Structures are given as C-alpha cells and as structure tokens.
Amino acid sequence: MSATTRVALVTGGGSGIGRAASLLFGREGTKVVVADVDADHAEETAKLVAGEGGQATACAVDVRDDGSVAAMVAAAVDTYGRVDCAFNNAGISPVAKPFVEHTLAEWQRVIDVNLTGVFLCMQHELRQMVEQGGGVIVNTSSGAGVVAAPGQPQYTAAKHGVLGLTKQAAQEYARAGIRVNAILPGMTDTPMMREYLEEHAAMTRMLPFGRLATPEEVASAAVWLCSDAAAYVSGASLVVDGATICR
Q1: Strand, coil or helix: 167
Q2: Which residues contact 63 (CB under 8 A, 6 or more apart)?
Q3: pLDDT band at 2, cuts 50/70/90?
Q4: How many CB atoms lie within 10 A of CB 107?
Q5: H or E stretch including 203?
Q6: What distances in angstroms separate CA 144 from CA 18, 151, 155, 240, 245, one per listed residue?
Q7: pLDDT tens sequence across 82-121
C-alpha cells in the first residue's frame, strides 16, 4: 500500500518518539491520528504535522482504560476509514530505587500503562485490522525488554512483557495479513529520559556513540517497520540503541 493512502495511529504522540514518528509519517503522506493522555500535546503534534503539509487529527486517550482505547480506534476509523499502521508507544518510567522499596501502587501504575495499555491497544487494533484485511502494529518495548533496568523492576517486567505480546500476536495473526513487531529503544533524548538523566548524567558518556539517540532516529525504525520495505518482517524485536546492548 502506498504511504499516501495509509492511516497511522500513534499513541504517546504528544512528545518524544511518538511526536517524531507522527511527523515522519506525515512527511511521507500517511494520514496520522495522534493520541496522547495529554490532549493539548496531541493537538500540538497534529498542528506540527499539518504545518509541514501532512494530514493529522488529535485524540485524547488513556491507554489504561478499555473504553478510552476503543473510542480512540473508533475515532480513527470514523475520521479516515481504517487503521493501517498502529504505533503503540505510550509509556511511563518509574523512579529508580531498590527492589523492595517499590510499592504495589507504583508497580501497578507502570504495569497498567506500559503493559496492559499495549495489550488493550493491540486488542482493538487487531479487531479493526482483521475486519479491513490487514495492517501493521509496532510496539515500543525498550532495552529493558532484554536486560534489567537498574532499580526499575516494574519497568523491566512490563517491557519484557511487551515482547511476549508482540511475538504471540505476530504468529496468531500472520495469515490475517497483520504484521506485529517491536522496537527496543536505548537511551533517547526525550522528556522522560532527560528527567532520568538529571540523576544519572554520567551514563551518557558511557554509551558507545557517546550520545543519546534522537527521537527521530528511533522513530525511523518504527516507521520503516510499518512500510512495505519490511513486508516479511514480523515477530521481530528491533534494538535501536547504538550498540549499547549488542545481543
């Protein structure tokens, strides 16, 4: 399918990697539904896409809530008629501290957004893609999907879980014409990472490239996985971390 006839849904599209992906989709002519828990940020991204000549609409969503996710997918279909690409990118990061000091509430909040949120988005996206005859889903995991994030057990568990959801759905829906992959970003220059690095500034100097990834560099991987160039790529976990993990 030509990029100019596609529709992409991006969660967490109000900033960081999600905003970068929305802009990249828009530049290639794909219509974009920018979804974020912060409606103002989603609207800002949609205006940026439109300012570059693309087509975009904003949508508020709480990925923890099944009804909100259902409404998001329905809004995308009502606006553009279909959902060809879904980039499930919304996520949060907890404060790092010793394993036994994390409360149940802190655990649950991260699991609800980073894992259950992906599960709910995938359910509604898969139903729509089966009905329309195919599509592509890309989930944002993390380097923490394959190695532990120090001091963040719930983040590590959730990001490992995203890879499991990705693999399971990729096999189950292959014959329905649906591809499902994951990207595993390393340390990326996003608002969430800047907040983390306020306490861990030395980590940047230890990276093989000596710098953080840009949001655009990571988003490019997700947009490529949604393209016809990746037509036989499914069930993959694509690490985008500048040789940090190498596994």
Answers
A1: helix
A2: 11, 37, 69, 88, 90, 113, 116, 117, 118, 120, 121
A3: confident
A4: 16
A5: helix 203-206
A6: 19, 11, 7, 12, 10
A7: 999 999 999 999 999 999 999 999 999 999 999 999 999 9
Catalytic residues: 155
Query: How is residue 206 written in tokens?
Result: 């230890």
- Burial label for 19, CB within 10 Å (0-12, 13-18, 19+), is buried
In CATH terms, the fold of domain 3-240 is: Rossmann fold (3.40.50)
Measured CA to CA, the distance from residue 144 to residue 27 in angstroms comes to 30
What's the pLDDT tens digit per position in 11-50? 999 999 999 999 999 999 999 999 999 999 999 999 999 9
236: left (phi over 0), alpha (psi -120 to 50) or beta: beta
Claim: this prediction has a pTM higher than 0.85? yes
Q: Where are the domains of the chain?
A: 3-240
Query: What is the Cα–Cα distance from 47 to 61, expressed in whole angstroms?
Result: 18
- Measured CA to CA in angstroms, residue 80 lies from 41, 50, 75 at distances of 21, 15, 9
Do residues 119 and 165 lie in contact, with contact meaning Cβ atoms separated by under 8 Å? yes
